[in-house]
Amino acid sequence: MPRKTLASTAPPIVSSAHLVSPDSAEMSEFEFGLIVAGNAFHRWVVHCMSAAGLKDLTPLDVLVLHHVTHRARDKRLADICFIMNIEDTHLVNYALKKLLGLGVVAARKSGKEVTYAATDSGQQLVQRYRDIRESCLIAALNADEGLNRDIGELARLLRVLSGMYDQAARSAASL
């Protein structure tokens, strides 16, 4: 007979016990982990960017700056929202206006379209962020091939679950 482990007998660690489903208590555990990890990630990106020299940004401001810098291509507001899976364009637009005011993002108008790109200053700050990320996060992770494989699998699973949440949101919106 298999031995029961503490994990199999302990109640699930969740933020909302009233939502635990007998069909998948693990989903409630995942959601709690996502809440905690999401908040820790947001705190991290803000502190890392602050250490890089750009203070008083929200997590979204930092993530928009990173995306605008991504692959050194100009981005439209709609593209940024689409890639980041953000429905409310006003939130991203506000972040862009803030980043424009700080001089780390520039806007270019071509006909009716406006595109955004990181300025030299923005690119330098993102590079400094990268350096700090390497020394504070990646070095502490001390990942080997197995851990990197697990992280890659977790990333894949998060993408799958984000699609499921999007579909569930569409279903709920139609009720």
What is the number of strand segments? 3
Calculate the mean pLDDT score and round it: 93
Query: How helix-rich are the residues, as a percent range?
Result: 55-70%
- Low-confidence residue ranges: 1-6
SSE-based structural type: mainly alpha
Strand order of the largest sheet: 1-3-2
Strand content: 5-15%
Number of helices: 7
Largest sheet: 3 strands, antiparallel
Q: Nearest-angstrom radius of gyration?
A: 20 Å
Shape: globular
SSE pattern, N- to C-terminal:
HHHEHHEEHH
The end-to-end distance, rounded to whole angstroms, is 46 Å
List keywords for this structure.
mainly alpha; 3-stranded antiparallel sheet; 7 helices; 3 strands; globular; disordered N terminus
Question: Could you characterize the architecture of this molecule?
Answer:
The chain has 175 residues and is mostly helical. Helices cover 66% and strands 8% of the residues. It is built from seven helices and three strands; from the N terminus they run αααβααββαα. A three-stranded antiparallel β-sheet has the order 1-3-2. β2 and β3 form a beta hairpin. 15% of the residues are buried. Mean pLDDT is 93; it is low at 1-6.
